Amino acid sequence: MSVYDYTVATADGGTRSLGDYAGKALLIVNVASKCGLTPQYEGLQSLYQDLQGKGLEILGFPCNQFLEQEPGTDAEIQDFCRTTYDVTFPVFSKVDVNGSDAAPLYGYLRAEAPGDFGPQFGGFYDFISTTFPDRIGTDQIKWNFTKFLVGTDGEVIRRYEPSVTPDEIRPDLEALLG
């Protein structure tokens, strides 16, 4: 099984097989438009512009599970991404990333890369461990802008916790893409 075995809902009501991205490196991100980390859209778009030609695809999945920071409809989210951050990478339909209604893709991603979230994340760790202690020590997505790096073979390589910026991921992407 790989990421390429999943089909996801598109923002326009259709579906898309992630097999369409076979042979590409993927950065899969749960996104939100009303989060303190929302400016990461700018860095993600910069990565996409710089590295898409080398084989990178960024796939955004809006999620409203974190203090309801993605309340809009799929159409509103698309409009926000275009007009605020000039996003050109695909942003799919809103999903759950944790819990019994989590998108199957996210169940797979969490199992393949449970993360390394701990005290090394400083104040962000303190916030999550105080506000959402049930997420600590689990494979759950901790917050918006958790990122998963997927190799060109569809296998999950690594999970990056929310406070890791797109610029901090760039060296890993450049190494993967050659």
TrEMBL record:
Active-site residue numbers: 35
Keywords: Oxidoreductase, Peroxidase
InterPro entries: Glutathione_peroxidase, GPX_AS, GPX_CS, Thioredoxin-like_sf
Gene3D superfamilies documented for this protein: Glutaredoxin (3.40.30.10)
Pfam families (alphabetical): GSHPx
Gene Ontology molecular-function annotations: peroxidase activity
Any single biological process term in GO: cellular response to oxidative stress
Family designation: Belongs to the glutathione peroxidase family.
Protein name, entry field: Glutathione peroxidase
Source organism of the structure: Pseudofrankia inefficax (strain DSM 45817 / CECT 9037 / DDB 130130 / EuI1c)
Origin organism lineage: Bacteria, Bacillati, Actinomycetota, Actinomycetes, Frankiales
